[in-house]
Amino acid sequence: MRWKFQQLRSSFSLFIIITFVSCFVTVFIYISDTRYLYDHSSVTTCTMLDMEIFVEQLSKLNKLNDNNIKERIKHFGPVLDAIVKSLNISIPKELKSLMVTNKSVEIVRSPMTHLDGFTFLPQLWAHEDNLRPFILHSGGRKTVSMVYGIPTVRRQKKNYLIQTMVNIVNNMNQNEMEDSLIVVMIGEIDREYTQRVTTEIKNRLPEAVNSGLVDIIAPTPEYYPDFSKLRLTLGDSRDRVSWRSKQNLDYAFLMMYCQPKGSFYVQIEDDIITKPQFHTIMKNTALQSIANGQEWFILDFGELGFIGKMFRCSDLSWLIQYLIMFYNDQPVDWLLDGIVETKACGYYKMNCRRLKDNLWVKCNQTLFQHIGIWSSLPGKIQRAKARHFNSRILLYKNNH
């Protein structure tokens, strides 16, 4: 008698498996196979009828309270649940409870953690719109060859922004201006100040602004973290950690705005001058290197800091994420060197310098010169100059 009961229980289990597999195959063919011509209405009717009969039989088996049967229902539960939902078939409550308790399947179906800028800037979690800029001015220009990013902030002693912008525009011909976009990112949350800078740019460079050559943006106040709560790193003071951390976030914000607007992105500063036809020189160098099959991450046309660094816009995502991840840890030029070393060098750093030089290509011509003296960091004086820049370039003199 006991042997017969075991045989009967095995038969029930076998019946469940065979019936389930048959129904699953039928539904799978119905849903996914579009290579053959079926009478879909008849297939749907047949499939639903089969499944309704199967669910009814499964409910009867479940009422036997056989643990072996219940375990098998649990094992196939999530897949069976997906099938009955696709056919809009109702099932008994006690049966449904068994179909959603399979932990191993649920783990596979659970969503993976999505890592992006919000992961490292938790102040943006509740308000994603805070990652969007205030557009202080835009001519709507996009799909240009070259996008020039100029981050600027308030300086205590002297502001060089207008001097820089006039020099850049004066060193472009008409074709170069039509093939470019200059984006000024005012890294301040004081709306009165950002409007004042915007008005000054419009007044001093009306043709460039009206032609669509210049966009002016600013971040929302909520974009920035509470700088007073940042970790103190590298033995720096609170003020210096806040200053360099904010600079990293400003650069990332500027790059996010510029990335979809052109083919190449060039990072410059708000206290530089450049050489005539710098645009054509940089563009031709980039296109020639691509034609030659050269794998580069940076084309470097400046000797100092982040000045004159050229990237493919498609590569900016790497740098944006890197700056956001480590904004509190290191200055921006250190992070730039760090990402290149990570991309180029192996664990043992063999031939690391040569491998980095293949990705960070120092170009023959230095096209940008640093002219600022008073840093945006209060109390800091920056007298560094590019050694190979042609000193015969005339500076724009502010006579106003």
Automatic annotation (TrEMBL):
Q: Which residues cross the membrane?
A: 12-31
Signal sequence coordinates: none
| KW Transmembrane (keyword) present | yes
Q: Does the keyword Nucleotidyltransferase apply?
A: no
Checking InterPro entries in the record gives: Glyco_transf_54, MGAT4
What biological process terms from GO does the record include?
A: protein N-linked glycosylation
A cellular component term (GO) from this record? endoplasmic reticulum-Golgi intermediate compartment
Chain ranges of the MGAT4 conserved region domain: 118-389
Which controlled-vocabulary keywords does the entry list?
Answer: Membrane, Transmembrane, Transmembrane helix
Q: Name one GO molecular function term.
A: acetylglucosaminyltransferase activity
Q: What's one Pfam family the UniProt record gives for this protein?
A: MGAT4_cons
User: Which named protein is this?
Assistant: MGAT4 conserved region domain-containing protein
What species is given as this protein's source? Acyrthosiphon pisum (Pea aphid)
